[in-house]
Design brief:
The complex is a heterodimer. By secondary structure, chain A is mainly β. Helices cover 7% and strands 62% of the residues of chain A. Chain A is built from one helix and 19 strands. Chain A has a 16-stranded antiparallel barrel with strand order 1-2-3-4-5-6-7-8-9-12-13-14-15-16-18-19. Chain A has a two-stranded antiparallel ribbon with strand order 10-11. In chain B, 41% of the residues lie in helices and 0% in strands. Chain B has helices at 2-16, 40-53. Chain B has two helices and no strands. The chains are: A mainly beta, B mainly alpha.
Chain lengths: 392, 70
């Protein structure tokens, strides 16, 4: 019942937000064109090997339903505003085993939810045959153990008659996390709210058209996190006794990635990418992805088939079991050493324009996607996505 | 580290000197299957999942903030 009331409250908030957005931009929206896309995500993960799970069950089951709404409105030729609303509802086996908020240890799996929204604008300015693009985005996110206020600034400029583009972006997250500090008596454990976590990330991206059928992109990312970097439900076993995980207050993260899109013909293409990642906690990771895309009906519908391999080593703070207490300790299976194999399929088709409540909908697209991933440390996850987009 | 940075800078300078492709010749490049990300809205969720389920970030806008998704 509590969950139902909460869900209604969240949906009410979404409705109010949408109405406010509509009123605010009503006049502007009449002057231009609007693109709207909804994506409905259905996610499931499972594992019986989660060392960090509080009750020693190892169960890492999670089910997530996440509808997303993207809207972009072109105010004039050069300027667009955009917004995104995301609503998550999920059940998680590990979250509810040690949680005074949603129930004492051992209560049935219960629902939780999150809402987040972003609003931004971007502008394009011609510079001869080249183009300047710059924009900003502000957002918030709220769930029972996490709150976030965040912002993004981005800019890019093309050179050499729009053949080479150099871009930079800066993101800042002013987040608050809730953590259990003492779990010596799990059924009476209290969550501590309002603990600071700040994340600053910056990236530089360069893309180059090589030939009429080739384009490449390079990206360098640096991110630094400060504050409480532990996760709410994560625990470790120290000489057989459950304790909360302890992680350093800073984490610097670096990544270099590249992507190459090569047209095999007018109707098919390869999309290949590689990323190297390393961080202050001694995790190194290699990720490679290959996708084959082909038109089913030229410019009307296409399909993508892809495979992705991710390999990482464990952080220096990771152990499945600790013999004695250490300064920093985690058993988070996401920070273990493993290989991950992901494959998936994506299909999008363009539908005929039609009228809905008197509004002419154009460029109507409908997509379906199925992704499955399995890791060598026991985690498996899969998700289905369906998207519906149009312009009006 | 310096070697990686130098390699990156070298690659960047290499591609900046490539031959130009005129706008009129970009018919194939304009197709959806030729985009660097042909489905950005779906990718937003995919990248979010990966940034939380894996320790690595980079190459997308998902950097592990804004969600207690662990």
């Amino acid at each position: 019942m509590g969950v139902t009331k909460k869900t209604i409250k969240v949906l009410h908030t979404i409705l109010l937000f949408t109405l406010a957005l509509q009123n605010t931009f009503a006049e502007m929206m009449a002057k231009g064109r609007t693109k709207l896309k909804t994506v409905f995500n259905l996610y499931h993960q499972n594992s019986n090997d989660g060392n960090q799970v509080a009750d020693n069950s190892g169960r890492e089951e999670t089910n997530v339903i996440e509808p997303m709404v993207f809207i972009e409105h072109q105010i004039n030729e050069d300027t667009a505003i955009n917004g995104k609303i995301v609503f998550d509802a999920w059940t998680a086996a590990s979250d509810t085993k040690l949680d005074n908020y949603t129930g004492a240890s051992g209560t049935p799996i219960m629902g939780q939810n999150r809402i987040s929204a972003n609003l931004g604008a971007r502008q394009e300015k011609k510079a001869g045959k080249n183009v300047w693009n710059y924009g900003f985005d502000i957002g918030f996110s709220s769930e029972y153990d996490y709150k976030s206020l965040n912002g993004t600034l981005s800019a890019s400029r093309s050179f050499a008659n729009d053949n080479f583009t150099l871009g930079a972006s800066f993101q800042y997250y002013n987040d608050e996390v809730s953590l259990f500090k003492d779990i010596s008596n799990p059924s009476a454990a209290n969550i501590t709210t309002g603990l600071s976590r700040k994340i600053m990330a910056t990236s530089i991206t360069a893309s180059q058209i090589l030939t009429v059928k080739d384009i490449i992109q390079f990206d360098a990312t640096f991110a630094r996190s400060n504050g409480y970097l532990e996760s709410t439900a994560n625990t470790v076993s120290v000489a057989g006794v459950r304790q909360v995980e302890v992680l350093p207050e800073t984490r610097s993260r670096y990544a270099l990635s590249s992507k190459w899109v090569h047209g095999l013909s007018k109707l098919s293409a390869l999309n290949l990418s590689y990323r190297y990642y390393w961080d202050q906690w001694d995790i190194n990771a290699h990720t490679i992805r290959g996708a084959y895309l082909f038109d089913i009906e030229e410019d009307e519908s296409f399909m993508e088939v892809f495979a992705r391999i991710h390999k990482q080593n464990e952080t220096k703070y990771y152990k499945g079991r600790f013999a004695s207490a250490e300064t920093f300790m985690t058993s988070d299976s996401d920070m273990a050493g493993y290989e991950s194999y992901e494959s998936g399929i994506f299909y999008e088709s363009t539908r005929a324009d039609f009228k809905c409540f008197g509004v002419e909908l154009e460029d109507v697209t409908w997509s379906h996607s199925l992704v499955y991933s399995t890791r060598t440390n026991g985690m498996r996850y899969g998700y289905y996505q369906t998207g519906f987009g149009f312009k009006f | 580290m310096p070697i990686k940075s130098l390699t990156f800078i070298f690659l960047m300078s290499l591609v900046s000197g490539c031959a130009n492709v005129d706008q009129i010749d970009r018919g194939i490049l304009a197709k959806k299957i030729m985009q660097l990300d042909p489905h950005p809205e779906e990718s937003a969720f995919r990248n979010e999942v990966r940034s939380f389920r894996e320790s690595a970030i980079g190459g997308s806008s998902a950097v592990g903030g804004g969600c207690g998704c662990n």
